[in-house]
Amino acid sequence: MNKLLALESEIIECRACPRLVSWREEVARVKVRRFRHWTYWGRPVPGFGDPRAGMLIVGLAPAANGANRTGRMFTGDRSGDFLYAALHRAGYANQPTSERKDDGLKLTGAFISAPVRCAPPANKPLPSELLSCSVWFDREIALLKNVRVVLALGAIGWNATLLHFARRGVVLRSPRPKFGHGATAVIEPGLTLLGCYHVSQQNTNTGKLTPMMIDTVIARAKELQK
Fold first, then answer.
1. Class of domain 2-224 as given by CATH
2. How far apart are CA 146 and CA 3, in angstroms?
3. What is the pLDDT of residues 41-66, one digit of tens each?
């Protein structure tokens, strides 16, 4: 836990990617009207959850007016509403909502990370930004010793996870496992990667991802940890 807190202190001071630094700070300064009274976080967002987690959830990046505002993964936006409601139904979260850092939310058995820690313009990080930010992704995952399942929300999270384990020297099967909702890939004995459509409004508002669909994937994650 102390090592994760120390890493968090490093992450939130990062200014490695000029485009991302400029964007996150501009959003925090200009604000959208509905959040004009907020003091935005406007910095990189560290991981959140249980250090002893058996399930690691990998997203994409902070939302401009979500985690970039609140300072906590998937907090303060509709994507977070959808995800935490599902985690609460599955027993991983003590409450179904995530509005601000001091709202009392706690995760048990789950930890949330992302391959990019700053809000990117149009939610699209550049390959160079993914590479630069991979140092935080690698160091955070290395401290999560009990992870047996990685649940990747979207193709970027899926590919970033595969690249992480490749950097660790894990020999992945060829061809590389492809992302898909419900896709499964054994990284190594006792460690499985699962795919789930991202919890973005683009997916949840159109019915591409439904509560039943994410519940089924999370239930599968639970089974794999037994």
1. alpha beta
2. 15
3. 999 999 999 999 999 999 999 999 99
Q: Which pair of structure tokens corresponds to residue 226?
A: 């037994």
* Residue 126 neighbours by CB distance under 10 Å: 14
Q: Which residue has the tokens 């930010």?
A: 133
- What type of residue sits at position 189? P
- SS3 per-residue string spanning the chain: CHHHHHHHHHHCCCCCCHHHHHHHHHHHHHCCHHHCCCCCCCCCCCCEECCCCCEEEECCCCCCCCHHHHCCCCCCCHHHHHHHHHHHHCCCECCCCCCCCCCCCCECCEEEECCCCCCCHHHCCCHHHHHHHHHHHHHHHHCCCCCCEEEEECHHHHHHHHHHHHHCCCCCCCCCCCCCCCCEEEEECCEEEEEECCCCHHHHCCCCCCHHHHHHHHHHHHHHCC
Judged by phi (left if over 0) then psi (alpha if -120 to 50, else beta), residue 118 lies in: beta
Task: Give the whole-angstrom CA distance, residue 25 versus residue 30.
Answer: 9
- pTM, full prediction: 0.97
Instruction: Read off φ and ψ for residue 187, nearest 5 degrees.
Output: -75, -45
